[in-house]
Amino acid sequence: MRIANKAQFYRLFDAGLLGNRLPALALAELDPEQTYSIRVKQAGGRTLYGIRGRDVPQAAAVCLGEVVITPTAPDDRLTIQGEIMRDHHQLRLFYATDPLPMKPALRKSGREVRGLAAESFLRTYCRPASYDMLMELLDAYDDAIVEFSAYRGGVGADPTHNVLIWEVRSDY
């Protein structure tokens, strides 16, 4: 199956069909003193990080389009983040270990490994259930790139996992 665009991605993601993620929250659920991230749901949309709950309504209003609000990811526990895909029937992993938002981290110190080295690397950083989740996504969406982050300890809607899925995309 292909994910043709960001709208299709979010339909699947919001339905819980694309792996473990941070829970989406309504404004009424926010703690004024906690921090949150705001992601714009349109292609090319920006993400705001570390916004205090009391400031989320104002920050979300500045964003153009529909947004999703989540707790801020526990980047103090980040071990690896990046993109995984299958390329000519082998795994290809582009990753970074810097505790920065993914795009700046990959620009700053992104590295690539392929094949068995990529598999071994993922098995080192991912719990078995999280590794299996990544492979199931690649099986279901064989031409996709899966953006993910791995953490020390459980994280997300299913804390038996130590991996969060940020995006599964084909060619949009």
Could you tell me the radius of gyration in angstroms? 16 Å
Broad structural category? alpha+beta
Helix content: 25-40%
Q: Encode the helix/strand succession as letters.
A: HEEHEEEHEHHEE
**Number of β-strand runs:** 8
Side-by-side strand order of the widest sheet: 6-5-4-7-8
Tell me the distance between the termini. 14 Å
Number of helices: 5
As residue ranges, the low-confidence spans are: none
Number of domains: 2
What spatial form do the alpha-carbon principal axes imply?
Answer: globular
Biggest sheet features: 5 strands, antiparallel
Can you describe this structure?
The chain is an alpha+beta fold. The chain folds into 2 domains: 23-71, no CATH class; 75-169. Helix content is 28%, strand content 30%. The protein has helices spanning 6-14, 56-62, 102-109, 115-125, 128-140, and strands spanning 35-40, 47-52, 67-71, 78-87, 90-96, 111-114, 145-151, 163-169. β1 and β2 (47-52) form a beta hairpin. The chain is globular, with a radius of gyration of 16 Å.
What's the short story on this structure?
With 172 residues, the protein is of the alpha+beta class. The protein has helices at residues 6-14, 56-62, 102-109, 115-125, 128-140, and strands at residues 35-40, 47-52, 67-71, 78-87, 90-96, 111-114, 145-151, 163-169. The protein has two domains: 23-71, no CATH class; 75-169.
Features:
alpha+beta, 2 domains, 5-stranded antiparallel sheet, 30% strand, globular
Q: How do the helices and strands line up, and which of them pair or pack?
A:
Blueprint: H1 6-14, E1 35-40, E2 47-52, H2 56-62, E3 67-71, E4 78-87, E5 90-96, H3 102-109, E6 111-114, H4 115-125, H5 128-140, E7 145-151, E8 163-169
